[in-house]
Every structure is written in structure tokens, then in C-alpha cells.
Amino acid sequence: MYRHAxxxxxxxxxxxxxxxxxxxxxxxxxxxxxxxxxxAALDFAIPFFDEDIPLYVDPFMLWRSPSYQDQAxxxxxxxxxxxxxxxxxxGEEQLAIVTLIAASECDEVGxxxxxxxxxxxxxxxxxxxxxxxxxxxxHYAQAGFxxxxxxxxxxxxxxxxxISDISCSFLKSFLIDFTIQQCDKLGIPRHASDIANVYDxxxxxxxxxxxxxxxxxxxxxxxxxxxxxxxxxFVPWLSYDDYFEHYCPQDEVSHKPEELTRVEILEYxxxxxxxVEEYIKAKERTFEDCHNDPxxxxxxxxxxxxxxxxxxxxxxxxxxGSDRKYExxxxxxxxxxxxxxxxxxxxxxRTDSGVNIRDLIFYNTGVTPFLxxxxxxxxSRQITVELKNVAAIERLHVDQLNRYLADELGRFxxxxxxxxxxxxxxxxxxxxxxGQRKAIITLSDTDLAQMxxxxxxxxRDPLDVIVKKYSEFRALCP
Length: 478
Known about the structure:
46% of the residues lie in helices and 13% in strands. By secondary structure, the protein is α/β, with parallel strands linked by helices. The strands form three sheets. A five-stranded mixed sheet has the order 5-6-7-8-9, sandwiched between helices. Helix 4 runs antiparallel to helix 5, helix 5 (93-103) packs across helix 6 (124-131) and helix 20 crosses helix 21 (463-476). The protein starts with 6 loop residues before the first helix and ends with a helix.
């Protein structure tokens, strides 16, 4: 339905796409295309270009979902996996192995911990061990799997990334349509790609679909597929560690449970399927406790106040690692204070004239008039916050940040430091605005305290403190 391009899309396709990528820090698809929306406002996890998203599809999220669509997708997923058992029963074990190997990696979704967005499929021996469960365990031979994540209780090396990739591979046809819908909704360009290993439920086989128009990674031209946020967790609801700690009868497995190995547990499970089945039933009964994991979680108010207390008590300078403690505390505090108006990109260390500088980088979501103005007036797709545990900002510091605020990153930046700017440095940042239209504002300990106070009261947004400081700065400019 969604896979054939409209005339407008085909026209866009003719335009040159591989332009010089802006020097964004940890670039995301939406930022690259100038879509200034926070992660919290989108239904999918925003893909990175050069690394995976550290979350995984948990098929149990589809099973427990109130959505009929998700429940139907889970049924399709389990039917596809159980078809491997049907092949084994027909004597076509090798075809089952080849199919499972094809399903074991799904690079297009970019989930996991890879720093390159490229994974590795399982080998034939591991695939053979998995499909052998359809013969070695009578329950699976007769009824198949109810949750294919159960494989992890019988086969070593069947981890959360495999569960996620197999889920995405068997559901890739739906994910392609979901991606196209989201791209057309947001205006993300799509380009024709040949998509390998798309599962056809009518043929019960993987095939390549040519000319599917999807967003692509500008670094390598490879297609990107989106995944709904509601499916994502850090750890599957059905997990080996949870089973081992709370349900496994360790005393029955060994007289020395403290010395139990994973191999011993897996062998015991294969010979005592009923124990695993009871664990599955227990986890199904508590399905309402299973929720997706957000891509970012704010720290509690008590933790925010504790971080502020640590910051204000630190001496300025580098003695006893005060600068490092200052940077670490702010690295934990600021992302929570500014979320969800600003998405946190990462901490970044850089060197300027032999001086180490610690920055916090935020994605500009453009969701407020202030943030939208930062994008339009200063070209700030990302916002740089420089951390300085010094008694006073000096000319050297201003010059360092000034050099960093190039057109690629935008011309708006912040100092987080202990005290307000002195008169000479304040005049210098005003002159930078007058001569180069660069805006540099400063937040002191007092401003941080006000942000934490707003974070606690929930009556206003902590970002309003930055808005106020910018208004005060602009009032001083000619």
C-alpha cells in the first residue's frame, strides 16, 4: 500500500542527496533532515547514522499489547518461527537452518550495541542447535513455541540482540510500511533500495523486494527502517537472568548451586521443560507490569537536588578532581532538567590550544518559540553547553567557545560556570554578537538552583531560566 512512491517523491529522488553532512555530534536522521522534534513526540526510535540504538525489540510487548494489530503481529511472528518446526518435521531441516540464519540479523533497524550499525548472523551450527529443539523437546515438537524467546533457556548464546533481530526480520514487511508512513507524515525523503530478507507469509520464505523507497543513511547509502517505541526494552520480559535468580530450582540442578554454570542450567531445562513452562506462565500472569523502556529517563527530584548540592559545595579549579566531579554532576543533572524540550546527544571532550574542554551537546528540538528562534537566527541544530568549574570566565574561555561556534554547529552556546561574567568578558560576548551574530550566555550556580527549583515544583519549565538569561543578554546588545 505504501511502498510505491508518489510523483512528488520520485521528483525529490532526482535531487542530489549526498551533500556534505553537517558536523553534527552523534547525528540522528531527524536532525540531519532539519526535523526539529523531540524523541518524546515521535512514535519511533530516532535512528543514529553511525551507531545502534541501545534498546531491543521485545516480542512479549506485542503479546501483552492491548492493540489488536500488535497481537496479530505477534501471532504472525510466532507462526513464522514455528514454521521452522514444520520444516524439521517434513525432513527439511536444512531449509529451516538457512531460514533462521537469514532471520538472525536485521541491520536496517539499527538496534543493539554495534558502533557501526552492522551485525553478524548466527552460524550454521548454532542455527542447527536451535531448530533441533523442535525434535528434542516434545512440547515444541507437538505444539511449537508460544514465545520464541524461550530458546534462550535451552541454547547458549541466544541473547536479547538475537531475539530482537529475529523479531524485526520476520516483521520487516510491517516495519517497512510503518517507516514509509512516518516518513510521509514528517517529510523525510525516501530513496529506492533493494531490501533483502523480507519475509513473505504466503510463501513462508524470505525474499528480496526491489525498489522499496525508504530513508537512507547518508554515510553509506544503506536503507533505514523505523521501529515503534512501544516495542522496545533494555532486557526482554522473559530473560535468562530473571529465570535463574527467581525461578530456577538451583538445588535440584546441583548440590553446589553457587558453582552452577550456564551450560548446566540449559541442560537441566532441556530435560525438565515443565520448570520453564511454569516460569512462562508466571510471567504471563504479571504481564501488566511489563512496560516499554523509554530512550531517556529523568533522574528523580531528590537526585537533582543532591547533584546541585554537590556542585555548589565544590571548590573551583582542579584540586582533588573538582573539575571532573563538577562535569560529571552536570552531565547527569542538565539532561534531566532540560528534557523533553532538549534531547541529550552526549558529552564530548575537545582540546583547544592545549586546554581540555568538556561540553554537553543537545539536539535542538525546536518545540518552543525560543528553541525555534535559536535554529532560525543562529543555525543551531544542536546546542553546545561548555562546563567551566572556574571562579571567573576569562577571555581565553570566551575565545575557545567562539571558535567552536561555527556555522556547522550553530552560533549559540552556553557557559555553565560558578559565577556571572565579569564586566570585561560580558562586553566581549556582546561584541561577538554585534560583529558575528553569535550569542553566548552564562548560567551560574544561582541559575542552576533556580532550574532545579522549577524542576521540583513542575509549575514552569527549567528551560525558562535559559530563556530569561537570553532575554537579559539581548537587552544589553545594540
